[in-house]
Amino acid sequence: RVWLSITAYGRGQPLRVGFGDDCAVAGGLVASDTDGPVFAADAAADPITGLLGAVAVLDRLSHGGRWLVDLALAHAAALAVSVNTLHAIMPPSRRSLPQPWART
């Protein structure tokens, strides 16, 4: 059995209300223009977290047992920013990211 918990900032933090846009900004998922920082996308943290949650649940189901998967919208946004940053600075030959959930 797998329980997926999606919160704004994680279960270990004091429970704070958060929504996709403010969590995305907290995670660093912003763009900028001549006036400064702006939203990169509307509610981007929501689908990013949902996709990560689906992958995590499938991974944990394949291992059996009981699991609590703790995902935070802000952390998922931060992961998306870091993956995009790594993709931009890596040479083309190194841009394929590992898939830790894949069986070999």
Task: Provide a brief overview of the structure.
Helices cover 41% and strands 19% of the residues. With 104 residues, the chain is of the alpha+beta class.
Oligomeric organization of the protein chains: single chain
Distance between the termini: 24 Å
Low-pLDDT sequence parts: 98-104
The description of the largest β-sheet is: 2 strands, parallel
Helix-residue proportion: 40-55%
Number of discrete helical segments: 3
Strand content: 15-25%
Total count of strands:
4
The largest beta-sheet arranges its strands as 1-4
Structural class: alpha+beta
SSE ordering: EHEEHEH
**Alpha-carbon Rg, integer:** 16 Å
Tertiary shape: elongated
Mean pLDDT: 80
Protein model, in words:
This protein has 104 residues and is an alpha+beta fold. It is built from three helices and four strands. The protein has helices at residues 20-26, 45-63, 73-89; strands at 2-7, 30-33, 36-39, 67-72. A two-stranded parallel ribbon has the order 1-4. Strands 2-3 form a two-stranded antiparallel ribbon. Strand 2 and strand 3 (36-39) form a beta hairpin. Helix 1 (20-26) crosses helix 3 and helix 2 (45-63) crosses helix 3 (73-89). The radius of gyration is 16 Å and the shape is elongated.
